[in-house]
Here is the input.
Amino acid sequence: MSERAFDLTGIDLHYGFVKALDGVDFHVEQGEVVAMLGDNGAGKSTLMKVMSGAHRPTSGHIAVHGREVHFHSPHDAAAAGVQMVYQDLALVEAQDIATNLNLGREPLRKGPLGWLGFVDRKAMREESDRELDLLGVRTAPMHRPVEMLSGGQRQVIAIARSAVRVTGESNGILLLDEPTAALGYEQTRLVEGLIRTMAGRGIAVVLVTHNLPLAFEVSHRIVVLNRGRKVADIPTADTENDHVVGWITGSRPSMFASA
Amino acid sequence: MSDTADSSAADAAAAAGPSNEGPAAAKAPVHEKLPKSISSLIFIRDRGIIVLWLFLIALFAIWAQPYFFSVSNAMLILSAGAISSIFAAAIAMGVFSGALDLSVPGVAAFVGMCSAWMISHDIPVWVSLLAGLAIGVVIGVINARITLVGLNPLVVTIGSLTVLTGLAAVVGGGYTIPGLDKLAFIGTDTYFAIDQTWTVDVQPWFLVPDFSFQLGGFDGVAGPVFVMAAVFIVMTVFFTKSRGGIRIMAVGGNAEAVRRVGLSSDFYRTMGFVLSSLLAALGGIVTAAYVGEANPAASPGIIFEGLTAVALAGVSLAGGRGSLPKVLVGALILATIGNGLTIAGADPYWALVATGVLLIGALLADLMLTKAVSRRLVSVGNLSVHGKA
Ligand SMILES: Nc1ncnc2c1ncn2[C@@H]1O[C@H](COP(=O)(O)OP(=O)(O)OP(=O)(O)O)[C@@H](O)[C@H]1O
Ligand SMILES: [Mg+2]
Here is the structure.
């Protein structure tokens, strides 16, 4: 836990006249889980979208593994090893789990059929089964269409779709925007385990959540945003629930001198 | 809640027992199976159209005997359904990829006129055909480019329908282009004709009245049937087996999902338009070949019949799902109804009435079945997530 996987400095972002982010500094290290907290509209999703390449900051610098980058699209971010799970899952309802997990990287059959672009569905299912096993998340059979899954299962599939892509590269970064919003107790624990597994493999994880117990449970560090500014950035072990709630609501003064 | 979910899944796994997918099951006991009641409902929803078709065939076999249930009449139905099923496939391409393409009749008329014009100017047949198909591809790309700017595909393709209808008339100076004998090989020519006939009498032992049917003595299979077969075989394989097909389906279901995994959703949406126009162009050429002349008038009936076939096949107009073989059965059902009612001596207008009633009935049945399935899925509650046991 030494190298900075992701390092953002002085990020400003305006939506028209709305200043959604105001001089935010943020970093995450390999193998570290950072919980990003804040009230509704604090700017969490916006900051995540800056990191995933969906939005370009009005000003500020972004560096991945110490190298400055300019993301023009999520594609650029993905090429740099960044994967994001959005609040809306964007799964293909009519297709099965294996297809959803493998969209864009479908294994082809061997030989001439493969040259013609024929997909090896059997390999795809087996590979998906294995990957979900490795992540410790078991859901329904791989050939079941996503539309027949429960909300929790879908959430798991959406996370797994991103997770299997970051594990592809060694030093990946996984951004999770409220991954447990729709989940019950069991499923939340499943996602928690998944986050630990990922971090244990050296992947940097940023977790946006409104679930404080979850944040305290899995994160190494907690970052709080309030109205577009970072008001706290502290190792999880060095803080407590009441302080964090204070920063979220704004009743506790910022850790940083206001500029 | 999670307790009951766990136990019901365990029950399901236990009930499924060792027959559960062989070795995979032993490795993965937590994979639950769907309950019988749900899987049989899904089976009815997914196979209902074939049952319906068989029912209609049985109905007409009795009602319109002995002429209906004969091989040569089956060929007539195939010929009648061939061209409309190619157009139905064209409409389905658009629907699969998430954009209903209404320009299909316009593409058919314009390309038919262009190819006919070339042939009547002594350009080699194969060049004229390939050029016609290429024009189809270009129109598809243009439709896509305009739509992807952010316009509604319905409006864009209605616009291009109008433009193409006008251009089709321009090509022939407002007249049809006759004398397409060189195209007879995909038109009126027939293959594998048999001269002899045999009549078979059947005496079933209960309920059904005696009936008879004929074997042999048919005029062969018409050219368009082969084109139809080729289109459906190639396209079905493409959509179920290939990367491109799977991604076009995915973009129709959820373009954002395709974008997020780093693919160009615009490319795959364009592919949908291109396939639609390509098949429309093919349909236009085959129509001209079958009729023996190219007609500049775009026929809106193509859209209605195509959409009816697509809807009968249970293909959601919202995009992203559907099966081409079922679209083919849908088109053949329409041809079967038209043919059967004619042979039975009913007023041909009843074919329209029957088709419309069938369409709405099929949609209602599909809706009710889908609702029943999701209601059961919720009440069973066995679709929760399970960690590795
Ligand atoms: N596309 C947009 N256009 C204009 N304003 C936006 C847009 N997206 C977000 N905002 C504004 O930016 C601010 C930050 O929004 P953001 O979605 O980042 O909040 P959040 O912290 O993720 O909140 P939540 O917990 O509700 O998800 C809000 O004031 C919001 O109204
Ligand atoms: Mg948000």
User: Anything to note?
Assistant: Chain A is about 35% helix and 25% strand. The CA atoms of residues 192 and 218 of chain A lie 7 Å apart.
